[in-house]
């Protein structure tokens, strides 16, 4: 499917092309560049670059130690000190909202709201209750690019409450992600976007199998490892090891040498090494909101064999850019991996150029914000 493409060109009546002043508020889970923020870090970097290219002025409010994705006079970085927020995906579904002492989260919002009177809108990239709740109680126009599906009852409620108040303030990466929430209107789906100049198409079809992502249970590395073992192959693994006990368990369940740990690499190296793979295996155990690594692999021409679940199930075009198999079916995954040569690597790259470019994302996000800034007329676009 053409994820969100149609949104780029839709403009509400009377919309002007005046450049916007925006505050982008980063995730409170880690500094930009640390890898702890997961896919949000790359999404934010793409959007900063894409919005600057479109002539907008940006304030980037982010935890101290973050690097700005671009050196450009139109982007001002505001580093904010404080303790990281615990990540929701590792909390119990019914856990309460927590705010640690000296937390960075309320400080990010103190800072962002101080800038609010001089800007058109604030965009939140963190998956947190506080900014969702704040939105209904301040004059500042706060928008939220929701980065995960449902993982917490408190967050489900906060998203549903905001949707009832004004759903135009919410956007999602995929329809499958948005389906997790109690919305009142069809969701705003913006997909995601990548700086394609940073990814090289590689056409060789005889490389190893690859897997990329945070090494944590919701990512299902054990299934990809089992498939590699079944096929008697090596699996190259890139990403931040978030859960070391889990990583050890995965490794000990397959023959020694099956997994080759490649570590967390910056994009330039990741794409070079990933691009040498014959296929990427993607095995989410949760309703993955999008799945950046899937699109990064496709951008390098690497077909993706994945469970038909969450964002990857919506992104991958079965038979064109990879194969989708029933969730948790390791045998089907192995069988599809054997058929990977039927996928044209150039078609993988073409899909990303068409549906997931940095420019396209920035255009879709701009259109979403402009629609949300027009006075409500009783309908939601
Ligand atoms: N990543 C990286 N280097 C690595 C492995 C992964 O920079 O060696 C990045 C990758 O570019 C992607 C992110 O980690 O942006 C993982 O995001 P994804 O959406 O796949 O999953 P999330 O961690 O957000 O659940």
Account of the 3D structure:
The protein has about 375 residues and is of the alpha/beta class. About 35% of the residues lie in helices and about 15% in strands. It has 2 domains: about 5-195 and about 360-375, Glycogen Phosphorylase B (Rossmann fold, 3-Layer(aba) Sandwich), CATH 3.40.50.2000; about 195-355, Glycogen Phosphorylase B (Rossmann fold). It has a 6-stranded parallel beta sheet, sandwiched between helices. Strands 9-8-7-10-11-12 form a 6-stranded parallel beta sheet, sandwiched between helices. The two termini are about 20 Å apart. Residues about 5-15 have low confidence and may be disordered. Uridine-5'-diphosphate binds next to helix 1, helix 8 and helix 9.
Overall 3D form: globular
Largest sheet: 6 strands, parallel
The side-by-side strand order for the widest beta sheet comes to 3-2-1-4-5-6
Number of domains: 2
Number of strands: 12
Regions with pLDDT < 50 over 5+ consecutive residues? Answer: 4-15
Topology overview:
Elements lengths: L20 E5 L13 H15 L3 E7 L11 E6 L23 H12 L5 E4 L4 H7 L6 E4 L7 H14 L3 E2 L3 H4 L30 E4 L8 H10 L4 E4 L5 H9 L6 E5 L3 H8 L4 E4 L9 H8 L4 E4 L2 H6 L6 E4 L4 H9 L6 H11 L2 H16 L8
Helix pairs in contact: 1-13, 3-4, 6-11
The structure holds uridine-5'-diphosphate.
């Amino acid at each position: 499917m053409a994820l969100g493409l149609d949104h780029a060109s839709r403009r509400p009546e009377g919309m002007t092309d005046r450049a916007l002043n925006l505050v982008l508020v980063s995730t409170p889970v880690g500094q930009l560049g640390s890898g702890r923020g997961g896919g949000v870090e790359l999404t934010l970097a793409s959007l900063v670059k894409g919005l600057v290219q479109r002539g907008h002025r940006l304030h980037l409010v982010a935890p101290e130690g973050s690097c700005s994705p671009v050196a450009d006079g139109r982007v001002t970085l505001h580093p904010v000190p404080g303790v990281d927020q615990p990540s929701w995906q590792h909390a119990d579904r019914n856990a309460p909202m927590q705010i640690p002492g000296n937390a960075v989260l309320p400080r990010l919002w103190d800072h962002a709201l101080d800038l609010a009177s001089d800007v058109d809108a604030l965009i939140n990239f963190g998956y947190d209750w506080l900014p969702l709740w704040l939105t209904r109680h301040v004059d500042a126009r706060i928008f939220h690019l929701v980065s995960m599906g449902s993982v917490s009852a408190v967050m489900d409620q906060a998203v549903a409450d905001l949707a009832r108040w004004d759903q135009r303030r919410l956007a999602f990466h995929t329809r499958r992600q948005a389906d997790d929430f109690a919305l009142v209107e069809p969701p705003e789906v913006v997909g995601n976007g990548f700086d394609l100049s940073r990814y090289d198409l590689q056409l060789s079809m005889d490389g190893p199998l690859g897997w990329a992502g945070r090494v944590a249970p919701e990512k299902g590395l054990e299934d990809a490892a089992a498939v590699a073992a079944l096929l008697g192959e090596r699996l190259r693994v890139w990403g931040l090891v978030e859960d070391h006990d889990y990583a050890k368990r995965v490794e000990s369940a397959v023959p020694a040498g099956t997994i080759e740990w490649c570590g967390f690499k910056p994009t330039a190296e990741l794409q070079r090494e990933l691009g040498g793979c014959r296929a990427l295996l993607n095995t989410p155990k949760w309703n993955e909101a999008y799945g950046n690594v899937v699109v990064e692999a496709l951008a390098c021409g690497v077909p993706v064999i994945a469970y038909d679940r969450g964002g990857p199930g919506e992104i991958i075009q079965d038979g064109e850019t990879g194969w989708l198999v029933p969730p948790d079916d390791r045998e089907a995954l192995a069988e599809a991996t054997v058929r990977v040569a039927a996928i044209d690597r150039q078609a993988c790259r073409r899909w990303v150029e068409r549906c997931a470019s940095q420019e396209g994302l920035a255009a879709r996000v701009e259109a979403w914000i402009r629609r949300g800034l027009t006075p409500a007329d009783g309908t939601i676009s």
